Amino acid sequence: MRGTSAGYGSGVDSQDTSQTSGGGESLLTVIVALTANGLLAIAKSAAAILTGSAAMVAEAAHSWADTGNEFFLILAERRGGRPRDEAHPRGYGQATYIWSLVAAFGLFSAGAMVSIWHGVTDLLHPSHEESSTFIANYVVLALALALEGTSFLQATRQVRGAAKRLRLHPLRYVDRTSNPTVRAVFLEDLAALIGIALAAAGIGLHQLTGEAAYDAIGSILIGLLLAVVAVFLMRRNMEYLMGEALDPGLRQQVLGRMLAHPQIDRITYLHVEYVGPQRLFVVAAVDLVGDDVESHLALRLRTVEADIETDDLIEDAILTLAPPDEPALTG
Q1: pLDDT tens for residues 161-182?
Q2: Is the domain covering 17-242 a CATH 3.40.47.10 domain?
Q3: DSSP letter at 111?
């Protein structure tokens, strides 16, 4: 069972273990976003059907894509948060990145591509029917601003709290955190607010000038915005699945905490990698204090491994004996 020790790092994750996969605050952030996007998807779809606005169609596609994404993110939280077992000795944390990658691809295909396609279609083949129900679009966009704003405030509160503890700019934290759920909800909510502004501008210019092209351009811009966010999210999840490099400060603190263990005399090799949000796999070659026979050394190594794994940040640790002629690492 995991303990509650202070942590083996001071990087982006070491002081933020409250946001681990399956953590309550991350799940709350996703649920707030899911509720807001589900309601908005229905309202925007109704407005799009009523008015025929291309920008509103893009916004409806955006909200439906975000709603589906939130289901995938909840699945990521649940699947990735399961405790390790014999079949998965390093836990299920990588599942969080896999399902988050699926969610990001859904945003790209169901949100970005649909919005761009519909906008281009309306731009090339404009409808000659003039809408007289612009007010419906504005009412729905106002509702969207309120609901998306609420969801964004929840995501921002979580991001700012973690970023402040780590003395990072919130956007820097969003980029560097190993928690894909926080990153996805924050960026999707931010994109939603920008999308509302683009949709309102397109619809407003359409109403003022009588040119439906502005509405179509709004749809295309919303699609491009979603594509940028989706590609960024896919890239970050892929980087963690392929082995994201640790922050140098975090690696040094892992080394320093291990050297502080009373049974470890020196360390000559250290490999640390992410195996999930705020979850690390550690491999090290160590010299233990004192002299002992080989059979006792093996037992002592297992005991030290168990001690290291009591830290909330360490999912699994493997220690081997260091060759006597290798130089020691310094923390």
Answers
A1: 888 888 889 999 999 889 898 8
A2: no
A3: I
**Homologous superfamily (CATH) for 248-321:** Cation efflux protein, cytoplasmic domain (3.30.70.1350)
Q: Which pair of tokens denotes residue 76? A: 């990521």
Beta bridge partners of residue 264, listed in sequence order: 288
Residue 252 CA, chain-centre distance (Å), reads 25
201: left (phi over 0), alpha (psi -120 to 50) or beta: alpha
User: Residue 137: which of 222, 220, 54 has the closest Cα?
Assistant: 54
Whether the CB-CB separation of 55 and 215 falls below 8 Å is answered with: yes
Q: Give this prediction's pTM.
A: 0.81
- As given in the structure block, the two tokens for residue 269 are 């090799």
Chain-centroid distance, C-alpha 76: 10
The tens digit of pLDDT for each residue in 41-89 reads 999 999 888 888 888 889 999 889 888 888 888 888 888 778 777 778 7
- DSSP annotation of 83 reads P
